[in-house]
Specification:
This protein is α/β, with parallel strands linked by helices and about 170 residues long. It has a single domain, classed as Protein-Tyrosine Phosphatase, Chain A, CATH 3.90.190.10. About 45% of the residues lie in helices and about 15% in strands. It has seven helices and six strands. The strands form two sheets. A four-stranded parallel β-sheet has the order 1-4-2-3, sandwiched between helices. A two-stranded antiparallel sheet has the order 5-6. A hairpin with a 2-residue loop joins strand 5 and strand 6. Helix 4 crosses helix 7. The longest helix has 24 residues.
Length: about 170
C-alpha cells in the first residue's frame, strides 16, 4: 500500500502522477473540491467540514460543518477497503490538519492506531518529516479516540508526536 497527503492546490497534479485507487477529498462546506466530478476509476470519499481545532469551535457549528465522530467513522470504514494494491491520496485545503488526521484514521484498520500514527509521521513533505509538517486536526483525532474507546491515549500519542505548536483557541482555519 502507498499513501500520499497533499494540499488541495496540488492534489490533481499529484493524482495524475500516482494514479490513486482511493481518494479522500476534504473541503470546507462552501468550497468546491477538486475531485467533485470524479477521477478515473478511483473510489472517492468526499467530506466537507471546517478545520476547527477546539471542541468549543466545533460545538458552535452545525453537524455538517464540524469534524465529528460520524466523520471519523466514515473515514475509518473507508480505510477498511484498503489492500496491498491500494494507492491512497488524501487532501484538504493546506494538506496539514484535516488530511493528516484522515490519514491516521483511514490507515488504522490496516496498521492499528499506533502504526497509522507512525506511518503518517514518517512521510516526508517538503523536506520535513510528517511529525514536523503535519498538525492532525485535534477535534477529529479526539472524536476518533472516543469512537475507539481509547480514553484519550490516541489523542495523547498524536499530541506528543505532532502538536509542537499550539494554535489559537476557537480558530476556524480553512
Amino acid at each position: 500500500m502507498q499513501f500520499f497527503i497533499s494540499s488541495q492546490k496540488d492534489a490533481k497534479s499529484l493524482a495524475k502522477k500516482i494514479k490513486p485507487t482511493h481518494i479522500i477529498s476534504i473541503s470546507s462546506p462552501e468550497k468546491e473540491a477538486p475531485f467533485d466530478s470524479g477521477f478515473r476509476n478511483a473510489k472517492i470519499l468526499r467530506l466537507s467540514f471546517y478545520d476547527v481545532t477546539t471542541q468549543s469551535a466545533a460545538d458552535s457549528l452545525d453537524e455538517r460543518g464540524a469534524p465529528t465522530r460520524t466523520v471519523a467513522e466514515t473515514i475509518y470504514n473507508f480505510g477498511k477497503e484498503f489492500d496491498d494494491d491500494t494507492i491512497l491520496l488524501i487532501h484538504c485545503f493546506a494538506g496539514i490538519s484535516r488530511s493528516s488526521a484522515a490519514g491516521i484514521i483511514s490507515l488504522t484498520p490496516r496498521y492499528g492506531a499506533i502504526g497509522a500514527t507512525k506511518k503518517v509521521g514518517e512521510l516526508t513533505i517538503n523536506g520535513q518529516s510528517g511529525y514536523e509538517w503535519f498538525f492532525p486536526n485535534p477535534v477529529l483525532i479526539e472524536a476518533f479516540d472516543d469512537m475507539l474507546h481509547f480514553d484519550g491515549e490516541l489523542f495523547d500519542l498524536v499530541g506528543d508526536n505532532f502538536f509542537k505548536q499550539k494554535r489559537s483557541d476557537d480558530a476556524v482555519l480553512f
